[in-house]
Automatic annotation (TrEMBL):
This is Probable GTP-binding protein EngB. Necessary for normal cell division and for the maintenance of normal septation. GO terms for biological process: division septum assembly. It comes from Campylobacter ureolyticus ACS-301-V-Sch3b. InterPro entries: G_ENGB_dom, GTP-bd, GTP-bd_ribosome_bio_YsxC, P-loop_NTPase. It comes from the Bacteria. SUPFAM superfamilies: P-loop containing nucleoside triphosphate hydrolases (SSF52540).
Length: 200
């Protein structure tokens, strides 16, 4: 089992150009606005409000960097940089502003070479949305051989068994997470460490 040792906020940045570089391996969290990216980061590091979450879509407007340290059962230490990104598809601002945000986000995602792992979060209640298919194709269009992509299906507390079966029918490897019920979070930490370091 992976234990969280500590986590802290590093900085926020509006763009790739203004982002600092860190020695830890980077993990980028992406997905639709309001899908639960910031909440998931908080759960992964066992903190309530490190990454700011909100029921209003469009809460995360900048690229936010967090550092977290983990330890496995054999006392191996893992240092990670978690990157909380603004959501895709939120357009409740002027179109021109939205375009600038999305192009800054696009540049960061494609050109931030230190990203080792992309985590695409999908809402488990709306698992087959067009925008998620596009996000998946988008990431795969530039994913390098030394980068990984993992999908998680969020808010699984809202699903009953038969609804979960439908998601599994759609994606037989679907991994459910609920920050509300702490479901799938231990497994998610293991998968993330494995995805970045190739072992647990
Ligand atoms: N029921 C339930 N609600 C959740 C869960 N995770 C997040 N939420 C709620 O979903 C809303 C959005 O969560 P955020 O973590 O802010 O989502 P986000 O993807 O970071 O959103 P943006 O920053 O706007 O892109 C909040 O009201 C959360 O409380 C979950 O596992 N279960
Ligand atoms: Mg957020």
């Amino acid at each position: 089992m992976i234990k969280v040792l500590n986590a802290r906020f590093l900085t926020s940045s509006p763009s790739l150009e203004k982002s600092d570089f860190y020695s830890g391996s980077e993990i980028a969290f992406l997905g639709r606005s309001n899908v639960g990216k910031s909440s998931f980061i908080n759960s992964l590091v066992n903190q309530k409000n490190l990454a700011k979450s909100s029921s209003t879509p469009g809460k995360t407007k900048l690229i936010n960097f967090f550092e977290a340290n983990f330890k496995d059962d054999d006392e191996n230490l893992y240092n990670l940089i978690l990157v909380d990104l603004p959501g895709f598809g939120y357009a409740k601002v002027a179109k021109s502003t939205h375009k600038i945000w999305q192009s800054a986000l696009d540049e960061f995602i494609k050109k931030r070479n230190s990203i080792r792992l992309f985590i695409h979060l999908r809402d488990s209640r709306q698992f087959d949305m067009e925008i998620d298919k596009n996000v998946d194709l988008y990431i795969k269009s530039f994913l390098r051989s030394d980068q990984r992509l993992i999908n998680f299906y969020t808010k699984s507390d809202k699903l009953n068994q038969s609804q979960k079966a439908k998601v599994l029918n759609f994606d037989k490897d679907a991994k459910f997470v609920s920050t509300l019920k702490n479901e799938g979070i231990d497994e998610a930490r293991e998968l993330i460490i494995k995805g970045v370091f190739g072992r647990v």
